[in-house]
DNA sequence: GCCAACGTTGGC
DNA sequence: GCCAACGTTGGC
């Protein structure tokens, strides 16, 4: 089982929104980045767990845990001319963009802030894309060691 | 609001 | 294939 981190701006869709969805489940749509697309399409598996990360807020950080509940499949919002993330270059016969469905698992007891994570950028979290300067990836892999380390911070 | 860093586009 | 221009991300 692999681990992931998924970013979202809570102004658009935060973990509170996810909790309020039917079955606390939501398609993670609107991703328009090839690296992130490839991970959803090719690597994510049902049962994988992910951190839910809030970006573009006063205190960016990890706020909860989600589970991947579907394999990658085409993102229908790319086909919809009225959708915000419509992409005319994607069509159902040759989909360009993919998504996975995610389900709320639990809140963290506290937000583990980006600044706290960066404190470990040179040791336990060395190589973790999130703490690298200029990182813009909205979906990234988390190694087992990084996952356990970050979970350990929750009680610290 | 600023701006550095990044990914994408398109001319050549 | 190169790379300048552009739009976006996202921390601060």
TrEMBL record:
Keywords: Phosphoprotein. Residues 2-152 form the EVE domain. It holds the Pfam family EVE. It comes from the Bacteria. Gene3D superfamilies: ph1033 like domains. InterPro entries: 5hmC_binding (IPR052181), EVE_domain (IPR002740), PUA-like_sf (IPR015947), THYN1-like_EVE (IPR047197). This is EVE domain-containing protein.
